[in-house]
From TrEMBL:
Ranges annotated as biased composition (Basic and acidic residues): 99-112
Chain intervals for the UniProt region annotation (Disordered): 99-120
An individual GO BP term: tRNA processing
Lineage: Eukaryota, Metazoa, Chordata, Craniata, Vertebrata
Record family assignment: Belongs to the methyltransferase superfamily. METL family.
CDD domains: AdoMet_MTases
Domain of life: Eukaryota
MF annotations from Gene Ontology: tRNA (cytidine-3-)-methyltransferase activity
Name of the protein: METL2 protein
Pfam families reported in the protein's UniProt record: Methyltransf_12
Residue intervals of the Methyltransferase type domain: 185-289
Keywords: Methyltransferase, S-adenosyl-L-methionine, Transferase, tRNA processing
């Protein structure tokens, strides 16, 4: 339906507003989308902006980065300490976890904090519009019989289809959001920096539902206590994605989109495949998993001192959180082994600068989209011959 298609479009507009006043430099040699179009063509102007897109590393820069990573990996964290970090794995820094239990973040403050992390996610969500166009037949059982007022409360209409349907809805609804026709899950929602901008669009888009989860109960509590949170189209819950025995609050093959952004890097490499496999099962056939995380030789990796390396390209920060730095081939292997098909898998290299201190930092991220294949029709000749 038009409302559903507009949902993703409006998310993209929110991102574009942030950068509409910024000057753009196009380059015919590098793609303008989806990873930005501010190209550094004159090195003398490097400190005119905070970030430059599509940076190409020289062989010398590549070798220097490899050497720095090799040097800071020479001294590994002792096995006893590594076991401790695994047992007491923390997605949020301890200081932040304590803040979440005692501090109420205002709506305006959350909005300010949300800009950077949400802008990285909503540009990937544009793929959802294509999925909607292909799969939506215009029916929205979630919207049937309901209207949404300015306070985002749900009520029955006088529509005959909506009359006396309260008992029917209660009987059929086996899980939260079961009546929605388009469902999104954000893994590792934190304090809701991306949740609330998404909800702002969702509240006027019947047929959609957002699930969001986090390892930290304090983070989830903060999301649920926020004034913009509404259980009519959102369900926040505590979940450890590494716990295979812990069920999700909805069945497999339920989700249209999964956001996995700067989460997988916090998990031990030996457990990553299991996490991805489990998430892949949650997707509907044709559903999309959107991934963004740290890339190999990012400035954050090169800045680690000796003694912080847990294993190859896997480190522990001073606050106890862990971080892995991916190559796009590793990402491809993880999702392909989970049965997903590559739609996009890119290395996002940018130059971040501190104009005041005249410092340059090479940032590297991996941004990917992987799709669950559509099921073969029952009358497919190949299927019947098996």
């Amino acid at each position: 339906s038009l409302n559903k298609m507009n949902f993703i479009t409006r998310l993209s507009v929110l991102h574009l507003r942030k950068g509409k006043m910024q000057q753009r430099h196009q380059s015919s040699r590098r793609p303008a989308a989806p990873l930005g179009s501010r190209i550094l063509t004159d090195p003398a102007k490097v400190f005119e902006h905070n970030m430059w897109d599509h940076m190409q590393w020289s062989q010398e820069e590549e070798e220097s980065a490899k050497q720095k990573a090799a040097e800071n990996s020479l001294v590994k964290v002792q096995w006893e300490e590594q076991d401790k970090y695994e047992r007491e794995a923390k997605i949020l820094p301890e200081k932040k976890r304590k803040e979440l239990k005692t501090k109420e973040i205002s709506s305006e403050e959350t909005k300010r904090n949300s800009i950077s992390s949400f802008s990285q996610k909503n540009e990937m969500l544009e793929e959802g519009e294509k999925y909607w166009k292909k799969n939506d037949k215009g029916d929205s059982t979630y919207a049937e019989g309901y209207i949404y007022d300015k306070n985002h409360t749900k009520s029955f209409t006088d529509n005959p289809q909506g009359q006396n349907c309260g008992e029917e809805v209660g009987r059929l609804e086996s899980f939260r959001g079961s009546n929605a026709t388009y469902r999104i899950l954000e893994v590792g929602c934190g304090a809701g920096n991306s949740v609330f901008p998404i909800l702002k669009v969702l509240c006027s888009t019947p047929g959609t539902f957002l699930y969001c989860c986090d390892f930290a109960s304090g983070a989830v509590e903060l999301v649920k206590s926020h004034s913009s949170y509404n259980s009519a189209w959102c369900s926040a819950f505590v979940h450890d994605v590494c716990d295979d025995a812990l069920p999700y609050p909805f069945p497999d093959e339920t989700l249209d989109v999964i956001l996995l952004v700067f989460v997988l890097s916090t998990i031990h490499p030996d457990r990553m495949q299991g996490v991805v496999n489990r998430l892949a099962k949650l997707l509907k056939p044709g559903g999309m998993l959107l991934f963004r995380d740290y890339g190999r030789y990012d400035t954050a990796q090169l800045r680690f001192k000796k003694g912080h390396c847990l294993s190859e390209n896997f480190y522990v920060r001073g606050d106890g959180t862990r971080v892995y730095f991916f190559t796009k081939d590793e990402v491809w292997n993880l999702f392909s082994l989970a049965g997903l098909t590559e739609v996009q898998n890119l290395v996002d290299r940018r130059l971040q600068v501190n104009r005041k201190k005249k410092v340059k930092m090479q940032r590297v991220w991996i941004q990917s989209k992987f799709q669950k294949p559509l099921m073969l029709p029952l009358n497919n000749p190949e299927e019947t011959t098996k």
